[in-house]
């Protein structure tokens, strides 16, 4: 198989973790006789520094011409600490989501037995937790009309959803539930918000077409609590943009390290794969960041290409490195490996694996 991959390494630890994911993809290509062609493009603070724009048109063009996008991280403290900054790296992320139509953000949360004691949550509560958040990514309050009025003393952010926007992500979430434990939980605030009531209407109407999936509904405040009290009750969580942003960060705590959480953002024509962690500027250039989240995101990309055996092998390799304690400092503070060493180990596992091509 021949695939073109746009690579947007971005800021902070982005380039270091992306380099490991590419190492692993190259090992997969070698092993299974595929060709992955990479095109690098600028995004984030580095793009602002070089072009004044966090998501230059040239980058969007590279993404449009690719089969998928591999994304590192964007963000730089020099912008965070300036409330008057007109351009921010994060705008680049929102722009690429919108321009590429990446409406469905998928964030799987699993536990690794060898890491369960790392979670700040009690072991008996999180053991066996295995859930995935389907977060709507191109609508809602993030993209509604926003502004100031009354001479700037009043601000507003509008939240809007259409039936079509809800249906297209719900379809993917229902289908995912069918391949998993067949439970879908819609997280909303239907006791207060009209948009949430529309989400409920749409999901209720779709449910009979997925008769094997049990559907339930939770208000977001309760869901936030349930996530900590009994995360094992969740299988697929379906939710709108803002609630998904919050609930997925909360859910990440279950895994034990944000450095392990991968994500996929699926659109009608293309898809983007990125670690859930940010640019972690304090670690940039130190070769200490955990590359697992990016490598696992690359595995999700392989799934998207329907290269399931390859994707599973990558996940197995990551699992093996974690089980053997061959991890970065966030996971193994006593005897940490460097970012590049973890990449090497995972690539070597793939190179050695016995597979029939
Ligand atoms: C995320 C991030 C982004 C979001 C920020 C960086 C704009 O928090 O991907 O979850 O809020 O969507
Ligand atoms: Mg977030």
TrEMBL record:
Segments traversing the membrane: none
Entry keywords, A to Z: Amino-acid biosynthesis, Branched-chain amino acid biosynthesis, Cytoplasm, Leucine biosynthesis, Magnesium, Manganese, Metal-binding, NAD, Oxidoreductase
One Pfam assignment: Iso_dh
GO molecular function: 3-isopropylmalate dehydrogenase activity; magnesium ion binding; NAD binding
Subcellular location: Cytoplasm
Primary site of residence: cytoplasm
Cofactor note: Binds 1 Mg(2+) or Mn(2+) ion per subunit.
Domain of life: Bacteria
Named cofactor requirement(s): Mn(2+); Mg(2+)
GO BP terms in the entry: L-leucine biosynthetic process
Enzyme Commission number(s): 1.1.1.85
Annotated Isopropylmalate dehydrogenase-like domain residues: 4-346
Cellular compartments per GO CC: cytosol
Residue numbers binding substrate: 97, 107, 135, 221
Family annotation (InterPro entries): IsoCit/isopropylmalate_DH_CS (IPR019818), IsoPropMal-DH-like_dom (IPR024084), Isopropylmalate_DH (IPR004429)
Catalytically driven reaction(s): (2R,3S)-3-isopropylmalate + NAD(+) = 4-methyl-2-oxopentanoate + CO2 + NADH
Site feature: Important for catalysis: 142, 189
Annotated pathway: Amino-acid biosynthesis; L-leucine biosynthesis; L-leucine from 3-methyl-2-oxobutanoate: step 3/4
Residues reported in the UniProt entry to bind Mg(2+): 221, 245, 249
Recorded family membership: Belongs to the isocitrate and isopropylmalate dehydrogenases family. LeuB type 1 subfamily.
HAMAP family, A to Z: LeuB_type1
Function: Catalyzes the oxidation of 3-carboxy-2-hydroxy-4-methylpentanoate (3-isopropylmalate) to 3-carboxy-4-methyl-2-oxopentanoate. The product decarboxylates to 4-methyl-2 oxopentanoate.
Subunit relationships: Homodimer.
Protein name: 3-isopropylmalate dehydrogenase
Species this protein is from: Solitalea canadensis (strain ATCC 29591 / DSM 3403 / JCM 21819 / LMG 8368 / NBRC 15130 / NCIMB 12057 / USAM 9D) (Flexibacter canadensis)
Gene name per UniProt: leuB
